[in-house]
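Hi F.,

I've been meaning to write this up properly since the lab meeting, where we talked about keeping a consistent format for the predictions we share between groups. The idea is simple: the sequence comes first, exactly as it goes in, then the structure tokens exactly as they come out, then a line or two of notes. No screenshots and no reformatting. I'm using this chain as the first example so we have something concrete to point to.
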Amino acid sequence: RNSKWSGDFLSLLIKSLNLPARVETSIKHIVSDQADLGQTMYLEMIAQEPRYADCRSRVLIDDLLLTSLEQGHYDARCRVFFRLLSDCFKLDHGTLLSVEDNALSLLRTLQESESEEQKAAREAAQKKRKIKKAVLIGVSAAVGATVIGLTGGLAAPFVAAGAGVLIGGGSAAVLGSAVGIALITTIFTGTGAGLAAYKMKKRLGDVKEFEFCEVGEKKPSLRSVVAVTGWLKGKDLEEDAKDYTEQWQCLDEGGEVYGLRWESKELHELGSALKTFVSETAVTYIVAETLKQTVMHSLLAAITWPATLLSLGSIIDNPWQICLNRAEHGGRLLADALLSFKDKTRRPVTLIGYSMGARLIFYALQELAKSKDSAGIVEDVYLLGAPITADPDRFRPLLDDVVAGKCVVAYSRSDWVLKFLHRGATVTASVAGVEPVELNHPRLLNVNLSDLVTGHHDYVKKLPEVLEAVGLNTRPVPVASANIS
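Output, unedited:
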């Protein structure tokens, strides 16, 4: 599905590097490893080109990013390309974030530096065209987002037209293009509210609650992160609402971070049941001793569960089954939201979730795989302790058609709670949260957390450590935010 996009993007790069058109065929052979000259050597040749010499490879990334903005979007495929390019040039992860931040700072400066002449021209254009402000910012979007400038949509063409004074004619042309103006508007005004403004169009199944909450201070960004909570801590519904955002404040990945608020009542009941179930110290001891005698990679059905534990299963089985069902329906709603977000912003989204949240994400990806418009939305995916199938055939289309970057599946063979909850599975069944997905794919990464996660509740109790273990950047958070009780 991405072959046409790859060809178009390659042509775009050739044009941006001022290369003659006749070299396109040769480059296509090189990047597909069909020529004697490999990709790495080819990239080194670019890095040594005089314009990018003397450790100025970042200049290349700056130029190419502006080229992407000229096309009016910066989607997941573009960003993965820039990540790989940064790696090849031995630039650290922070370099790309810095390039993105600098581009946004420039756009913000341009938007806020409208001269009197530009203002007069804008006002004249507004009067002549009878453009209504409500049309530009969108009534529904204005409710769900912080509108930085109500006149941003009108000012953008004139602001970008004056960009040459600050950044030179070439970049001014980029920011002055029609599609580039559209991107400026979506980032810095309410028309780009995207996920914050998303509302369910209709109920799906039994799902009654589904909305996005901003995590921390919202800053305009070229990318977004959606974090999906797997259960609530089981105190009271009002206190539980903080779980959708507070526990994710440890993320330090940059971008606009959203917590998905969904089915609070059911997730509250699941959290309460899980807390009761796990707090039985005798049960924990029995299970630990049982698993010591069990080969950890055995099929779920191979474990003989103690009668005492089985008798307590009724505490958690019902809320667990309800949430399994709601997560499937919630996944379809997330897919709808992401498709809507793509239409508005064309920016990449990374998805992170644990337990039921990971299940919801998985079903969102399944739904996106059915859509012809899903390419370029999802950058990376992190599924932590997911109560989903580990069948490779269910993952392959997601990597081929939906996820532009990597799909990380974190599992723990020591997660006795998840094993117990799937005790009724058939002998051939496999659960991604307790064993790896056996798929040979360069962008599927299995991460074994068996030494860190000894029970399902640890995904909340040790969330910052879990996020670090799967390769995400974190920052210190209050101890209370990472406590299950």
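Notes:
Residues 128-174, 295-301, 481-485 have pLDDT under 50 and may be disordered.
The longest strand covers residues 256-262.

If this format works for you, I'll send the rest the same way.

G.
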